[in-house]
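S.,

Sequence below, as promised.
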Amino acid sequence: MIIDIVMPKMGESITEGTILEWRKKVGDSIALDEILLEIGTDKVDSEIPSSNAGIVVQILGEVNQVMDVGAVIARIETDVNQAKPVEETELNNETKKEHKEKYEAPKVEDPVVDISKKKATNDYEEKRFFTPVVNKIAQENNINSDELILIPGTGKSGRVTKLDILNYLKARNDSIKPNIESSNSLKPISSTFKGHETIVEMDHMRKLIANHMRESIDVSAHVYVMSEIDMTNIVNFVKKENNAFNNKEGYPLTYTPFIINACVKALGKYREMNASISQNNIIYHKDINIGMAVAIEKGLMVPVLKNCEELNFIGICRKLRDISTRARNNQLTPDELQGSTFSISNFGVFNVTMGTPIINQPNVGILGVGAVKKRPVVIETIEGDTIGIKSMMILSLGFDHRLVDGAGGSKFIEMVKENIETINLEDLF
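The prediction came back faster than expected:
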């Protein structure tokens, strides 16, 4: 019996995926739950296991091809004695036509569209639905609705897919490139390399990170403020309680939950820091969803700890441990990588003293956490000032000046500082 393997739904907002790598080829045997391929979305790369055991008899999706959720990407014969490769000639004419229309990359021969010579009203009524990823690409490349509806769509009912608009942009950019190069006002930038170089194409995740970071710099007006935090009481508390905590929970107690706990309390008071901007509108979020940057082998992920305002300290510890572990094991779903309202980047785990992290869109704020280090500091007492050894940490707050002013950012980081330094350690657990 031949079983269809379809592009899986990786999250509620995910409508398509990109095939990154096939782990099997036609004729290979595969076991139940053995990895068949790796796919990528605009949020995460995932390994996809086979839903059946058998022989791979047909592969319909090519590497780097973008396909809709639910589309057939491969077929498996569960009866190994009957298995044989399914050739293109074995498909009937209707299947051939459907396969060609749905999976072949569109050819954009004339991307330069004179909108004034076409009426887009009827086309717009027929193809008025565009996926979020298509709308996002259109907005980033200044494609208005009149131009967007004229792009040939290869999706269901003529819908414009991500691949359609990317091919359109490539062809359009290629067509205007000669004009740019011939301009006397612009000179090409030449680079000379000496010695032996290795050129490696960026993998899918690195491309996503690069685009996301570049987009954030383009969109947000980044401003930074820093503050020194006295972590001495927390450091001593962790040393004292770590063994008991580890025995009870199964993992060590770290400083990060204390930082998250302090941020959540501050975000509850300063609502503009727990907001986002949509064009000329400010969206104030009721839930406090903390995006926690996690370094993984291939790059960086920002899984989201949702509804932190409902969690006590132990709840934050457990949720942080769970989501960080699954991020490093590539077990997160796309839904767990979106919906953050504020982000934290803890580069202190790499012994970095201070940094200025880039805002994670669509947030308006991000907290950078430096390493905790012992330093001589001035201690003010009633009897006078003295010099003592304290465990100090530098926090850096990056915020979007379009919404948050310097006073607001300064007040927020001071509240985080106060929450950390005055925390009641007796009632944590």
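The chain has three domains: 2-101, 115-181, 205-427.

Coffee later?
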